[in-house]
Write the structure tokens for this entry.
Amino acid sequence: MKEKLEHHKTAGTKVKYHKSTFDNIAEDRQQLVLNVAISEFAANGYNAANINVIAKKAGISIGSMYSYFESKEALFLTIIDKGFHLLEDALQEASGQTDDIFELFEKLLRASRYYATRYPELNQIYLDMTTQGLSSLSSKLSKQMESITARLYCDFIEKAKAKGSVSKEIDEKLVSFCLDNLIIMFQFSFTSDYYKERMKIFLGPEAVDDEERIVQGVMGFIRKALAK
């Protein structure tokens, strides 16, 4: 089921890519503009998406659109920022429920599947972000999106090494990179038709529908890879 982005408030100070005038309009109007923009960016990609079309579909003038956002890039970065805070919430929820690296990874693996299904358009935008076509924005996006995950993995792996639940010889940064790659590929396998077909080729058409088997298989692999 496709679910639109909900209104999301965050505590503390954060970077804002939109103008202050956008904060002054009703929340339902804000969400309409953002949801229309999400659909356009997901369907057409960043470069082909047209801010005039977005304004028209949202029922506002192009003048109003530019009073809310300096540019198409600012609108796009506002959406990415909303997606980042969904990620942040998922990480905080998972890490708040356990201090075990294996339990954490399983929770994040399941969460990646859940969010790929609940927010397919945001996931499509995230997939598009990884392409060379958006290299001009990569420096603005990757550090924000990936740093929080990298820190979380490293912290949990260091604790696991101290407790003796994983090998003390492993490089926590390298392992963090590998773990996150598994999460990303699993998530993309429920986002992109290409990656869905790829998963079928590797696992077989029948196995793709058995999510629990996939999760447990990945977890078995991870436990053996990090074993003492």
About this structure: Residues 6-13 have pLDDT under 50 and may be disordered.
